[in-house]
Amino acid sequence: DGGITQSPKYLFRKEGQNVTLSCEQNLNHDAMYWYRQDPGQGLRLIYYSQIVNDFQKGDIAEGYSVSREKKESFPLTVTSAQKNPTAFYLCASSPRAGGDTGELFFGEGSRLTVL
Amino acid sequence: SQQGEEDPQALSIQEGENATMNCSYKTSINNLQWYRQNSGRGLVHLILIRSNEREKHSGRLRVTLDTSKKSSSLLITASRAADTASYFCATDAGSGNKLIFGAGTRLAVHP
Q1: Lowest mean pLDDT among A2-11, A18-27, A98-107, B52-61
Q2: In angstroms, what CA-CA distances link A79 with A19, A21, A68, B10?
Q3: Does A105 touch chain B (CB under 8 A)?
Q4: Is the peptide bond before A8 cis (omega within 30 degrees of 0)?
C-alpha cells in the first residue's frame, strides 16, 4: 500500500546524543516536510524539501538537520544542539512542489523522549 | 510563527449535536485546509478550500471561508463518538509551498 512510513515509533535518547528519524514515502511525491508537535500544541515546521538535493529551513530549524538524497527519503537528525528535543515528530509529503500547497499526507509520527 | 488560531481550544458535545470550530489567520492565503488527528496518530486531511471559494461540503463536513475577515469555520453535523479528535486548520500563505498550522481544537463527543 502507498503511504508514508516513519520509524522508529518510539525513541529514547540520552542528553548529548544525536538521533536520526526515518521518513520514507512510496507515493512518488515531490515535496516532503518535518513538523514538531508538543503536547496540546499545533504543528511547527522544522524543514521542508521540494526536490531532491534541496531543502529549506522552517520556523524552528535550529538543532536539526536533514538530507534529501533520494525522492522517497527525508531523514531528520535531532542533534545535541537542540535544547528541548522531547516531542512528537511528524513527517509529511505532498504531490508537487511549486504553486499552491495541496493536501499533505502524514506518517504516524515518531515520539522522541530525552532521558 | 503561527498563522492560524482555532477557537475554541476544546469542545465537548453529545452525540447527534453539531460541532463548530473556527480558525482565524493573519495574512492573505492561497488556500486553507482542515485536518483531523486522533490521539497519538498522524494527521488526516479533511478538506481544502481555496481563497476564491466561500463554502465547501464533504459528507457531514461543511467549511466556510471569509477572506475579508480572515476566518474559516468547520461544521461537523450529527456528530458521532468516532469524531472525537483534534482538528487543525492550516494555511498556505504562498510563501514557499508550505503549510502553517494552528494550535487545534480538541473535540470530545460523548455517547
Answers
A1: A98-107
A2: 7, 11, 17, 34
A3: yes
A4: yes
Q: How many CA atoms lie within 13 A of A39 on its CB side?
A: 4
- Residue A64, C-alpha cell as written in the block: 536539526
Highest mean pLDDT among A106-110, A111-115, B102-106: A106-110
Omega within 30 of 0 (cis) for the link into A95? no
What chain B residue is nearest to A87 in terms of C-alpha separation? B40
What one-letter code names the amino acid at A5?
A: T
Task: Dump pLDDT digits (tens) for A18-46.
Answer: 999 999 999 999 999 999 999 888 899 99
Is B18 at the interface with chain A, CB within 8 A?
A: no
Grid coordinates representing B31 are 488556500
Positive or negative, the CA dihedral A98, A103, A107, A110 is positive
Asked if B102's CB is within 8 angstroms of A101's CB, the reply is no
Cα A52 from chain centre? 15
- Categorize the per-residue pLDDT at B52 as very low, low, confident or very high, splitting at 50, 70 and 90: very high
**Residue type (1 letter), B81:** A
**What is the structure's pLDDT at A61?**
96
- Return d(Cα B18, Cα B91) in angstroms, integer: 24
Quote the longest CA-to-CA distance of chain B: 43
Which chain A positions have a beta carbon within 8 Å of B23's beta carbon? none
CA-based nearest residue to B85, from B105, B60, B110, B61: B105
